[in-house]
From TrEMBL:
Domain of life: Eukaryota
GO terms for cellular component: multimeric ribonuclease P complex; ribonuclease MRP complex
InterPro entries xrefs: RNase_P_Rpp40 (IPR013893)
Name the UniProt record assigns to this protein: Uncharacterized protein
GO process terms (BP): endonucleolytic cleavage in ITS1 to separate SSU-rRNA from 5.8S rRNA and LSU-rRNA from tricistronic rRNA transcript (SSU-rRNA, 5.8S rRNA, LSU-rRNA); tRNA 5'-leader removal
Molecular-function GO terms, alphabetical: ribonuclease MRP activity; ribonuclease P activity
Coiled coil regions, renumbered to chain: none
Length: 360
């Protein structure tokens, strides 16, 4: 039996925002700095720009570590807090989890530990938290935030011991972690040695690289005077390039086809470079600087960089909850040339959804 009127359910709302800037890319922009858990980086460049050195630099500088079966209580120790959380910038994220039904957690570079749990787990922990924004009526999902960089927490040994005991009740979970030391004299692999000394299996990971080339007409637009509608159409075209879509204009045999909007001239060669891994905001800024250094912006009409987060991270921007009732498609695009640029930000709606159980 078919579920009643499923076809009438509205699609999740999505927000598309455009922010313009002039001159150099503002690396201190909040869209970059507040997006901590970056998973996919896609660079699209026209006219056969040469970026042979970029992949080598990204592979070397953006390595991270996978820790199998981590006990969350091991993050709450004076040695770890003082040596890694309060010194340098550490980012940690649970993996192989489902944000809508599993316990997920993340630790951002500022020492904020955020844990999302179901109702039963929350009641057994003994930690103070809040009801998830998306389950206000059902009250079946909770978020717990702990500032591990708080000096008051470090000085209060009884509170630290209680926190460690409570977190010890959570199941083990594999994580990915990266650490930026406070100075160049310290090796970033110190974080791997720390967990290895605790008896954990630690694996070094490097970003997975993929490159392809397409030939397509480029939509007509001017970065200096582009509006939201043009920016959305151009972002859609960039998305089609990134998935290596078929730009053939003959739609025979297809139920649907894509036509480049308002494009003139002949087809051009477009290079697309993609990395999948675990990138911090610092990694993203270093990649942008490297792109500017290795390309001649004066000869390029534009360069685009698309950043996509993890779909099952507990937060998207800063401490904004991940939208697990939708599709977690939070991300942003930077399109720029020598004189102008813009940020295209894609966010899910914060709309609260009704109890799906009543439709069963």
């Amino acid at each position: 039996m078919l579920s009643p009127e499923i076809f009438n359910f509205p699609a999740p709302e999505s927000l598309f925002q455009v922010e313009k800037f002039e001159g150099k890319v503002p690396l201190n922009n909040q869209n970059i700095n507040n997006f901590h858990y970056n998973h996919l980086v896609t660079i699209i460049i026209p006219d056969s720009a040469k970026l042979e050195q970029l992949n080598e630099k990204v592979t070397q500088d953006c390595s991270y570590y996978k820790i199998l079966g981590l006990k969350l209580e091991d993050l709450v120790s004076l040695k770890f807090i003082c040596g890694f959380i309060r010194s340098g910038k550490l980012s940690l994220l649970s993996i192989d989890r489902r944000i809508d039904c599993d316990t997920c957690f993340g630790l951002d570079p500022y020492g904020q530990l955020l844990v999302t749990v179901d109702k039963e787990t929350y009641q057994s922990l003994g930690l103070e938290g809040s009801i998830s924004h998306f389950t206000r009526k059902l009250k079946n999902h909770f978020t717990i935030t702990v500032d591990l960089a708080d000096e008051k927490l470090i000085k209060n040994t009884s509170r630290l011991s209680k926190l460690k005991t409570c977190l010890g009740r959570l199941e083990k979970c594999s994580v990915i972690v990266t650490w930026k030391p406070p100075n160049e004299d310290i090796c970033p692999s110190s974080i791997a040695k720390y967990f290895s000394d605790l008896g954990y299996v630690v694996k070094q990971c490097t970003p997975n690289f993929r490159r392809h080339t397409v030939y397509s007409k480029v939509p007509d637009f001017d970065l200096g005077s582009i509006d939201v509608t043009n920016a959305k159409e151009f972002a859609e075209w960039l998305g089609f390039v990134s998935i290596d879509g078929d730009f053939q204009e003959d739609p025979s045999g297809y139920l649907s086809s894509y036509v480049v909007p308002s494009a003139t001239g002949v087809a051009k060669k477009i290079d697309c470079l993609q990395w999948r891994g675990f990138f911090t905001a610092t990694d993203i800024k270093e990649m942008i600087e490297q792109i500017i250094k290795t390309t001649n912006l004066a000869n390029l009409p534009w360069i685009s960089i698309y950043i996509q987060g993890f779909s099952d991270s507990p937060v998207s921007w800063t401490n904004e909850e991940q939208h697990y009732y939708t599709n977690g498609d939070n991300g942003y695009i930077i399109i720029f040339n020598k004189e102008n640029g813009l940020f295209c930000i894609q966010k899910c709606s914060r709309k609260r959804y009704k109890d799906v159980n009543k439709y069963k």
